[in-house]
Amino acid sequence: MRRAMLSLVIYGFCTLVASTWAEPWQGDFETEDLSQWHYLANPAGISVQSDCVYQGGYAAEITISGDEQFLWHGNAALNRSELNFKPADTREGTDVYFGWSYYLPKPLSSAKHELGYWESSDSWQQQVRFNIHGEALSFQSSRADEVYWRLPEGASAGVWHDLAMHIHFSSDPTQGHMTIWHDGEKISEQYLQTRVNDTDAMFTQIGILRAREDSTATILIDNARQATDVQTLLAAFDPDRPVTCD
Questions:
Q1: Strand 113-120 versus strand 59-64 pairing type
Q2: Element (H, E) at 16
Q3: 213: which DSSP letter?
Q4: What is d(CA 16, CA 57) in angstroms, rounded to the nearest whole number?
Q5: Closest of 187, 204, 206 to residue 195, by C-alpha
Q6: What is the pLDDT of residues 93-127, one digit of tens each?
């Protein structure tokens, strides 16, 4: 009897923990503020607006310029303003289903703008990232010079786009893998190192990170979500229903 009771307790605990890890999350700004997000990296350029949204009534607007207030600790190499999300569990062997939608009112400059990336807590090492140059979107390992892929109009202005990903976290490049969808279409499915090391949790930041330049850059973010499966993740964006903000 005691063994049976202990087994039930252990099973119940494991079920509770698993359900907590898998709990869906929304970063859709329907709270009318930024409270859904775990941290704001240089919040000076981040606001919530209702003029242009993908879903619901609100979306974030991120605008930066070359002004000193957008330099990270005065470093001209880090001109930024970003939203931070920390999944509950990114340990070795775990899976995360995550995505967000984005909108450019006008094309960005041809300089590299980091739209989103995964980085390690404590050691603060970036692992993989999405870049925008003008209206082109690319994806790469942060330690590599060459990109895995590039979409010439993946960040075209005037229409909402979406990035969705299934990440299997591992510091072993033969075990870690990512599947990425852009506007509902599968772009890549590849094995790569998705954790920096065996100890540090991983987090993501979304917005604009670039070297300082005089131009002003604006991007809108909406529909950020962590799902429990691929179907739910992809169902949040309808590629057959283009959304514009004319």
A1: unpaired
A2: helix 2-21
A3: -
A4: 33
A5: 204
A6: 999 999 999 999 999 999 999 999 999 999 999 99
